[in-house]
Structures are given as structure tokens and as C-alpha cells.
Amino acid sequence: EPDRESAPGSVETHCPYCSLQCGMGLRPGGATGLEVTERPAFPVNRGALCGKGRTATELLSSGARLTEPLVRRSPGGPLEPAGWDEALERIATELTRVRAAYGPDAQGVFGGGGLTNEKAYLLGKFARLVLGTSQIDYNGRFCMSSAAAAGIRAFGLDRGLPLPMADIAGSGCVILVGGNPAETMPPALRYFTELRENGGRLIVVDPRRTRTAELADLHLAPRPGTDLALALGLLHLVVAEGRTDERYIAERTTGWAGARAAAMAHWPELVERITGVPVPQLREAVGHFCDAESAMVLTARGPEQQAKGTDTVGAWINLTLATGRAGRPRSGYGCLTGQGNGQGGREHGQKADQLPGYRLLTDPAARAHVAGVWGVDPDVLPGPGRSAYELLDALGRDVRSLLVLASNPVVSAPRAAHVEERLRALDFLAVCDVVLSETAALADVVLPVTQWAEESGTLTNLEGRVLLRRRAVDPPPGVRSDLWVLGALAARLGWEKGFPDDPEEVFEELRRASAGGPADYSGITYGRIAREDGVFWPCPASADGTGADGTGTDGTEVDGTGAGTRHPGTPRLFLDRFATPDGRARFAPVTHRPSAEEPDAEYPVLLTTGRVLAQYQSGAQTRRVAELNAAAPGPFVQLHPRLAERHGIAEGDPVAVTSRRGRAVAPARVTRDIRPDTVFMPFHWPGAGRANTLTNPALDPTSRMPEFKVSAVRVERAGAE
Ligand code: SF4
């Protein structure tokens, strides 16, 4: 029976797409049989939804939906309908064969930042216990991993935003670096407009004049790959103009001397030469940022998706530390995460180097704790595995089989043609998905799984607020949940217990596994989330014997209100101390360096990639929604009139963009809203216009993030090459 909530006839739940996780209601009705209603009481979006959220029910009843397993019965043969027994048996047999022939690490697992916390948790457990493999990572590596690495380095803890979104509106100045919420998460835009209505300043850093940049008081448009230098130049001016917060630096930070020296080597005129941002604009930005009583820097994929992403984010964090912003009200540093469970998806064990609770796989105490919850010896747990791109690159070589959940790397991975070739080289590929994505189309077995509104589960939004998505409708016959699939496979591989398909039962185990870790969920229950409309982690269970629901261990209420002495959750982090051993934030002594690929005579233009309003990530879902597809039916190449004229390209002409990885063709969009030395392509589509055919898989040494945002390319009118 669907879990009906307070709004008459409506189940209160959350959007299936981005990290804002807008609250919405679902009730029977509309053309698709299930209609989206507003949930004005949910504080993050207060009822507002973008077109993706408004149309989210369409895919539930779409004809594109997979409703039965598919099996490729002969090499090169077609995918054919099959029963669940045949499909699961085939997977179990192939994985057993690969393991026997090549060892456990020949079995790869690739997850996704859209998986619920429960699925991410169970997938990590499945890989490490059932398969015994270290080779698990997920597409979140391509999303915010540089911000996570920089946050851990500086603050000892990574939570996308260490404060609620509402604090943005109350801040005196926000520098938004490489983010475009006007298109990626439109309901969030009101926080930025309220900021300005309240007298605060918005500074947007982006090589393109995006819809978000149009709202800014100041738009800085650096050359792609130079925002690290830009941050250093701003910090240089902060020091030169005597605007550092020396008391804060002395009391709450370490490492200032190294960071200061690095910044002082980047004087404004040098930074102008590197970035293309005029010195007066640098001075204006510093003025706004330092004049404000409260101020913050927010980053998104622009600075993060670089082979120096960790240091680039680190340079922006340094700016917040030198000016005494981090860990103060309506101030500091935060990351606008991308995927729906981009935050929770990285906390519960599907990342190559981590265990549930955001614990390090190399930490003996963490291994012992999680092994205890799982009822195994810690020595059973494998060590860290390859990062996402390195895992994909190893397919068909060291890694012979791959199980994919909630990801479509054929479209979303860098150097995508190579990744596609590696997928084809596998001994065995199994994919769980709701539609036949480009990756699923290559598989030997495809399993049709339930979608957001057909199952319950928790997600953690970009603020670290743990939310409950509720089941509102029955799935089509023939479809199973990812949790059920993992349990059924585990049973076939000899693990009868430990893999329940009930989301709340999995969450209860996740709570215990996360207890005491950096991302402590032990004080959070489904009941609390429902009553409080989300709970911010860390939220440990109370130490006085009361349970997370304010009930005693025997289930009785402690104080009659249901509140007990439970931990309230942590909306704002670092107000008293940072999560480092000494409680101080750490400056990073970062310096500018060129991108992995700089323009040259053969490839003289820079390519940067991103998203558009009506599509989401690899487009596997949104390309199948009629209204969204009509609004954004295909890729394009955005370029400046000067660049277009030089190559004889007019609006709408087919443009061939070529990099060292390959060639893509898409129609021209000629506009002054982009630097003349740069072209932009959205990455949502497969085929001839696939942007990721072109992107560079050079990796950040710390986060292992590929260089999506900076590739050297050549631009021509297609056919005139
Ligand atoms: Fe869904 Fe994100 Fe749009 Fe909100 S902003 S409706 S979460 S896609």
C-alpha cells in the first residue's frame, strides 16, 4: 500500500533528478496516471519545481521503459527477452567464471550518484563481501570528487554545503565559481535573487555569460582552466590591501605562510595575463567580498572537473580562510553538488576508497567497525580499488566483468569512444536500468529496475539533509528493485543472508555501519525524517541510551514528546571547530599550473562542457520525456562570432569539433555570451554530437577527477575540413 501523507491524496516525496531534491507531492491523475503536486512546506524549494521535476512522472509509464530482463544469448547476437531466473543465473555463472579464471579483482562494479543511500550501501557491501572485489567506483567521481578532496584536506570533513541553502540569501557576498543554477537547479535561484534583494552581492565566475551570470553584480570570465590563478590573484589583493583576518588566521587555521607565499607570487597583472580577467575586475571582486560582513564561495563543476580540481577548489577555500569566513554564520565555502544523491552516494561505500559512514577503507578501526556490522573478519575486506575512469580504462584487460547500476558511462565518461571500446572488450557486462541506455545496449544481461516513485529510500541533498523518498505507485509487473536484485544475486553466489530488499531494514543497518564515522547517520530514522522533513548529518544516536526516535531502547518514549534527548542533527558545521585533529582549518599552498592540454597550432581553441536546462546528465531519462526533448532536442556548439567568422561558420551550420580523442559534430550557436577562445558543448547526447568523445581523461592526482572542463580542440565548418 503506498505510504499516503498529510496532503489529501498526495504522497510527499522528492524529485528523481538533481541534488536540490525538491519536495513534491504525487497523486493519481493527469495524462500519465500520476500527477506532480506542490509541497510548499518543504523548506528547500517551497513548492517550486523546474521542468524536469514537473514532468518527472512521464518516464514511469513511458513506452521506453524496460519491463522484462534482456539477455544476449550469443556473442554479437541481439538482446532478447528472458525470465528473471535465466537472467540472474547467467550473471551468477559469468561472475563465478570470471572470478575462478582471473581472481576476485577481475569483477568490476560501477555505481551512480543517483542511487539511494540504501542502494549505495548495499552495492558496496555486495562488491566487497559477495564478489570480494576492490574494483568498485561510481560516476560521482566525475561530479564533485575534487570538492570532496579539497574539503577533507582543508576542513577534515566533506559535506557539500556546511550550511543550509537559506544561508545564501542572508549572506553579504557570494562568489559562485563555475556553476549555473539558473539552468541546473532553477528553484535554487531564488536564494541568489533574495541575496541581491537583501543588499548582498553576487559574483559569478564562468567563461560563459550564463543565465546565472546575467543576474550577477559582477561577472568574471576567465579562460577555462585558469580559475586557480584567479583565486590566487584575489588572495594576493586581499593581502596587499591589508584585508586578511589575522586573528582568525592565528586562532582557527594552520599553514598560512605557504598559502600566502603562493598568492604573493601571483600579482594582479600576471593573473590578468593568465586568466584574461582585467585587474579592475579583480579589485572590484575583492572589494565586494571583503566589505561584506558575511561572505562565501560556492563552487560547482567548473573548477572541480579539472586535472587540478582539488588544488583549484583549495585556492578558493584559502580565500575564505584568509578573510575569516569559513565556520562563521552565512559564510564560508560550499559545493553545489550535481546528482540527486551526489552527497549520500559518496558516503556509504560505493566509492573505491571508502566504507560506510564516509570512513577510509585503509583505516584499521573503520574496517573493524564495518566488518563487525557485517559479521565478517576485517581481513576479508579488500583494499581500495581503481577510480572510475581508471576502472573503465582497465575493462577487458585486468577487469573482465562489470556490473553497472544507475550510470551511463558511454555518454558521461571522458574519452567516451575509448570507454565504449573498453566496455565492448569485456567478457561480461550486466546493467540494471529503467530504460535501454547506451551502456545497457552493450550489455550481455539487462535487468529492468524500479524507479523513484515506485520504491522508498533515503537521499542526502546538497546541504547534507537526509530525506525520504516515498513509494507512491506500484511498479510495472516484471520490474524489480535494485535492492532485490542485489539480494537475489547474493543468494545465488552463496550469501543467503545480509542483503534484505526492504529499504528501511537496509537503512537500519546503514545507521549502525555509519555510527561514529564522519557521516554519522546513527541518530536518523525513517520516522524522524518524515516528522522533521529531513535531518542533517552528522546526527549520532544519543549517548544516554535513548534511541534515534527519542524512544528508550525498549521503544518507550523518554519524555512524552517523542523528542527525548536525541541529537538535533547538524545544519551548520564548523562553527566552533573544524573536523581536523587540532580543530583548525588547513590552508593548502597551491600554485597555478597549466591545464593538462593547452591550445597549440593544431588544436588552438578550448572546449568546455556542461548542462542545459531541459536535460539531465547523460540524458538517459530526460531525452525520453517529450516536453524536455522538445525543449532541448540535441547538442550544439556555442561559439563567439569572432571565432565563427574566422572559420566561415554561421548560426545553425554544422560544426566539427576535433580533439586528440576524436571528432563531434553539432549545429553552431553563435553568441557573444562566450569567450572568443572557447567553445561550449552540452554533454547529454550520444552519437555524432557526443561532447565526451572529445574530453580529456587526464586525472587530478588526489581526487582522480578527469579534466572534463578543459580540452584543446580544432573547430571547422563540417564538410569544409
Ligand atoms: Fe528536480 Fe532539481 Fe529541478 Fe528541483 S531543481 S525539480 S530537484 S531537477
Automatic annotation (TrEMBL):
GO molecular function list: 4 iron, 4 sulfur cluster binding; metal ion binding; molybdopterin cofactor binding; NADH dehydrogenase activity
Keyword Nucleus attached: no
InterPro entries attached to this UniProt entry: Asp_de-COase-like_dom_sf (IPR009010), MoPterin_dinucl-bd_dom (IPR006657), Mopterin_OxRdtase (IPR006656), Mopterin_OxRdtase_4Fe-4S_dom (IPR006963), Mopterin_OxRdtase_prok_CS (IPR006655), Prok_molybdopt-oxidoreductase (IPR050123)
Transmembrane annotation, as ranges: none
4Fe-4S Mo/W bis-MGD-type domain residues: 8-64
GO cellular component: membrane
Single Gene Ontology BP annotation: respiratory electron transport chain
Keyword flag Iron: yes
Residues covered by region (Disordered): 543-573
Keywords tagged on the record: 4Fe-4S, Iron, Iron-sulfur, Metal-binding
PANTHER family: NADH-QUINONE OXIDOREDUCTASE SUBUNIT G (PTHR43105:SF10), RESPIRATORY NITRATE REDUCTASE (PTHR43105)
Protein name as it appears in the record: Molybdopterin oxidoreductase family protein
